[in-house]
Design a protein that fits this description.
Blueprint: H1 25-31, E1 33-35, E2 44-45, H2 48-70, H3 72-86, H4 91-118, H5 122-148, H6 152-158, H7 177-186, H8 193-213, H9 218-239, E3 241-242, H10 248-257, E4 262-268, H11 276-279, E5 281-287, E6 293-299, H12 300-304, H13 307-316, H14 329-345, E7 353-358, E8 363-369, E9 374-375, H15 386-401, E10 414-416, E11 422-424, H16 436-454, H17 456-467, H18 469-474, H19 486-528, H20 533-554, H21 559-570, H22 586-606, H23 611-617, H24 620-642, H25 651-667, H26 670-684, H27 689-720, H28 730-748, H29 750-775, H30 778-806, H31 815-831, H32 840-851, H33 856-872, H34 875-887
Parallel strand pairs: 1-4
Antiparallel strand pairs: 2-3, 4-5, 5-6, 6-8, 7-8, 9-10, 10-11
Helix pairs in contact: 2-6, 2-9, 4-8, 5-7, 5-9, 7-9, 15-16, 15-17, 16-17, 17-21, 19-20, 22-25, 24-25, 24-30, 24-33, 25-26, 25-34, 26-27, 27-29, 27-30, 27-31, 28-29, 30-31, 30-33, 31-32, 32-33
Pfam family, one: LPG_synthase_TM
Subcellular location: Cell membrane
Keywords: Cell membrane, Membrane, Transmembrane, Transmembrane helix
Length: 891
């Protein structure tokens, strides 16, 4: 098979088969045969390690500039100490060092480039040249910034008067030193100790001579090195590093170097691509004179796969539940070899490791005796017998008897050979001398793995027969999704979605079966022409009871709950409270980030406000009225939501949820955060997910309709205020024409028409049936619509009171004009992508109030007070309410 994508240097130094004593021509042609289609290797790869080094370099540059800006005394003292120490060096030594370094700093990179070109490694040289050019551009930009825009303290730390011209300053960053550092980093001199040592000696001599002669400062040298280093890794991550992953033929050559005589090698595909990088690439190799082999190849690129996921796990989970995000190849090799030998010594069936070797500087291989067989995932259900389950638990018990944790007991890590013997593979991620918690995590993982295939009852029964009830009961606190493998969590999520779909279908079927009875009862009432309210209510209660019963019958327990119940039958006193494995909960992290974003927006808004004049000129009676109207809006918002929820939901807690929404909308767009919070609140209050979404959607749909109608009505009134005739204002006419044009455009363009029809159809599929349910309850409908009207009235009155707090009788405007301005500003704020409509709402309200005749001196502080009362000041109570509801499991 023809291999592509490997770098020419990958096969450098690999012995050819024909050079081995006794090799014949036919054998040589046979040895390099690789069966199967290996995936085409990309010529370049983007390494997460390069990105991490880039971010570290940027952070180091920021820290250095911050020290230079705020620690002026420290930088000055450091420069004086260095100048005093270097000033004692002999002049002859300084001149020799300066001359030698000036020549060598150009010759060494050129010599290295020639050596790489001779070995056909031009790609690395091209990367180095690109990094050098970019570093030179960054140095020029930095020099320009320091000279013209940087603070004086930074300029003093990076420059000093030039020895040749006291009126000129030295360069803040060396224009030739940073490119050289970027070049040497990008071409990979760190992997060649001799070249690296020579170049670093040259760089140190050059820096020393520049310091002694007064042409630079210590901070300038450090900044130069950081810029070159950072630009190099940024370049490597952007364009990608040459792929040095070994190919199948490189594997064949490596096997020959450790004494094997391979004939063919075929790639064995991994079952789970999400975790394939942790297990390496696998090959089945046949030999000329012996049984076949199983070979695992691990390289740097595979180790980097899933790096950010593992880094997040290390951050979120406690130390005992995690492992290193990125091991070196040597560490990975030693760990897997150690686990393989330890597992066999413990009496467990594991693949026998017979050889290890490096495949160049960027890959290693581990050679095992061929095990054969099939994985547990590939076995049909009828072949998974109770004896096979018990054998699996026996292997795990053997590992745990020697304190060995497997850490990945999933289906494709459990192998069953032709005789039915269980073999545990994929020991690379395990640990020796493991603690009790890790051993319990192994037990819980295997319980779930077997439960996914044979059910909770058989999985628990097999574990009890081998490990005993006490050991199995002790693993219950670890029986939680975060303690399971990534592939197992994905499978559980898929099963949860399927289970929810079955429950939904059962409820819909019960609803459909009740339709004929409702239709017959309705026809009977029409014939009698005597509708009985009690009978209608009884029918509605019976319908709700039928739906609830259908939901209860269709409700299924998830696998983890089934396993717990099976264990508790044997050990009722077993601990079931999940162990705290998380160092940082996602909800806590999200809450912290959201609070930081909200604080940032709040501070940026408040820093530009002069509070003195506002407080002196304000009418505090109207300010108090505005505060009351703002507080009443939360009660109105709760009414507007509960009016479209037929189920019983506590009113006071709903009001608290609306207060919590004032915190959510400051960290998310207004049209998104409130909907998500109300939906989550209704679900936690006992409303089924689909119905909760439909209730919030119905509330939003009614609110949109009321908003449009009120905008048109108040806009019409503003047109009649100044004229005796009942003619609408030009703004209303223009708005109607604009809407008509948009409707024509949407209906005439097929793509837009299809998009709108799809969205409207999905809306009517869920929301309209919910609205029909609400229409059957007049009290709920009145509550919902009344709450919407009251909510708008509270905001309009709050804005009007804010205007009156800073105005007088000569600057007042009508309530209809204030309502139009608020409705327009609120609509724009809901559409704006900024949190809470920040910026868009303020601008719209201010411009709108000025347009209706309010002076700018009154409009600006009035809008400011209104936004403070309705957006910014409720943030802290909203945050407290959000955390309170979260602790009470109401969100």
């Amino acid at each position: 098979m023809k291999q592509q994508g490997a770098h020419p240097e990958d096969t450098e130094g690999t012995p050819d088969a024909s050079s081995r004593p006794g090799a014949t021509a036919p054998e040589t042609a046979h040895i390099d045969e690789v069966e199967g289609d290996e995936p085409l290797l990309p010529a370049r790869v983007h390494r997460p390690s390069d990105l991490m080094r880039l971010l570290a370099g940027v952070l180091a540059v920021v820290v250095l500039l911050a020290i230079a800006a705020f620690a002026h005394g420290t930088t000055s003292g450091l420069e004086q100490d260095i100048n005093k120490g270097t000033g004692q060096a002999p002049d002859l030594l300084i001149k020799i060092a300066g001359l030698a370094s000036s020549i060598a700093i150009l010759l060494v990179p050129v010599a290295f480039a020639i050596e790489r070109l001779i070995k056909r490694d031009g790609l690395r040289i091209a990367d180095g040249v690109l990094a050098a050019v970019l570093a030179h551009g960054v140095t020029l930009a930095t020099d320009l910034w320091v000279a013209r825009a940087a603070p004086d303290s930074i300029q003093e730390a990076l420059t000093q008067p030039s020895p040749g011209d006291i009126h000129a300053l030295t360069d803040p960053v060396h224009g030739y030193l940073a490119p050289v550092i970027a070049y040497m980093t990008a071409v990979g001199m760190s992997r060649r100790p001799r070249w690296r040592a020579v170049l670093w000696v040259v760089l140190l001599l050059d820096a020393f001579s520049m310091l002694v002669t007064g042409y630079t400062t210590p901070f300038s040298i450090i900044l130069t090195v950081l810029i070159g280093w950072t630009v190099a890794y940024g370049t490597l991550y952007a364009v990608g590093s040459p792929n040095v992953r070994p190919t199948g033929r490189t594997l064949m050559a490596g096997l020959r170097t450790v004494g094997f005589r391979p004939v063919t090698a075929s790639r064995v595909e991994s079952g789970d691509a999400s975790e394939a990088g942790d297990r390496g690439r696998r090959y089945f190799v046949t030999l000329e004179d012996g049984p076949p082999l199983d070979v695992t190849v691990v390289d740097r690129e595979q180790q980097a796969q899933g790096f950010f996921y593992r880094a997040w796990r290390n951050l979120a989970l406690r130390g005992f539940a995690t492992r290193s995000s990125l091991q070196s190849l040597r560490q990975a090799l030693e760990q897997e070899a150690l686990l393989a030998y330890a597992a066999i010594a413990a009496g467990a069936n594991a693949p026998k490791l017979i050889a290890t070797s490096e495949l160049g500087p960027d890959a290693v291989m581990l050679v095992y005796e061929h095990s054969g067989g099939r994985t547990l995932d590939s076995l049909p259900d009828e072949e998974i017998t109770d004896e096979l389950l018990r054998d699996t638990w026996h292997q795990v018990r053997a590992l745990q008897s020697r304190r060995i944790a497997h850490r990945r007991l999933v289906g494709d890590a459990i192998l069953v050979d032709g005789s039915g013997t269980v073999i545990l593979t994929d020991l690379r991620g395990g640990e020796i001398a493991a603690g009790d918690l890790l051993l319990r995590m192994d037990t819980s993982q295997l319980l779930v793995t077997l439960g996914l295939r044979v059910g909770a009852e058989r999985a628990v029964a097999s574990a009890l027969s081998v490990l005993g009830p006490d050991t199995v009961a002790d693993c219950l606190p670890m029986l939680q999704p975060i303690a399971l493998s990534r592939s197992t969590r994905g499978t559980l999520r898929q099963l949860a979605r399927e289970r929810a779909e079955r429950e939904r279908e059962a409820v819909l079927e019960a609803y459909r079966q009740s339709k004929p009875a409702r239709a017959e009862h309705g026809a009977h009432q029409v014939v009698l022409d005597k509708p009985d309210k009690k009978a209608v209510r009884a029918e509605q209660r019976a319908e709700k009871r039928a739906v609830d019963e259908a939901m209860e019958e269709a409700r299924e327990e998830d696998l983890l709950t089934q396993i717990r119940h099976e264990v508790l039958r044997i050990r009722p006193q077993a601990p079931v409270e999940p162990a705290r494995l998380e160092r940082v909960r996602p909800r806590t992290l999200i809450s912290f980030i959201a609070g930081a974003i909200g604080a940032y927006f709040l501070l940026t808004q408040l820093t530009h406000i002069e509070f003195g004049p506002l407080i002196e000129n304000a009418e505090w009676g109207w300010v108090a009225a505005a505060v009351l109207f703002s507080a009443a809006s939360y009660v109105a918002a709760a009414m507007a939501l509960l009016g479209f929820v037929p189920e019983r939901v506590p009113f006071v807690r709903t009001v608290v949820a609306q207060v919590a929404g004032s915190f959510v909308k400051i960290v998310a767009p207004a049209a998104v955060g409130g909907v998500a919070l109300n939906t989550r609140f209704l679900q936690r209050a006992g409303v089924r997910p689909g119905l909760a979404v439909a209730s919030v959607g119905a509330s939003q749909l009614f609110g949109l309709g009321c908003h449009i109608l009120m905008l048109l009505a108040f806009g019409y009134l503003t047109g009649t205020e100044k004229t005796p005739s009942l003619s609408p204002s030009r703004a209303v006419i223009g708005g109607l024409l604009t809407v008509a044009v948009l409707v024509l455009v949407v209906t005439s363009v097929p793509f837009l028409r299809k998009f709108v029809v799809t969205r409207v159809r999905s809306l009517f599929a869920g929301v309209v049936p919910r609205m029909l349910d609400v229409l059957q309850r007049p009290q709920k409908l009145i509550t919902g619509i009344g709450g919407m009207l009251l909510l708008t009235a509270c905001f309009v009155m709050c804005l009007d009171a804010s205007i009156r707090a800073f105005g007088d009788e000569t600057t007042s405007v009508s309530i209809a004009s204030v309502a139009v301005v608020f409705l327009a500003g609120n609509a724009l704020g809901s559409a704006a992508p900024t949190p809470g409509g920040v910026g868009a709402v303020e601008a719209t309200l201010t411009v709108g109030l000025i347009a209706v005749g309010l002076p700018k001196e009154v409009a600006a502080p009035a809008v400011l007070l209104f936004r403070l009362l309705t957006l910014w000041l409720p943030v802290l109570p909203g945050w407290l309410a959000f955390n309170h509801l979260t602790r009470k499991a109401a969100l």
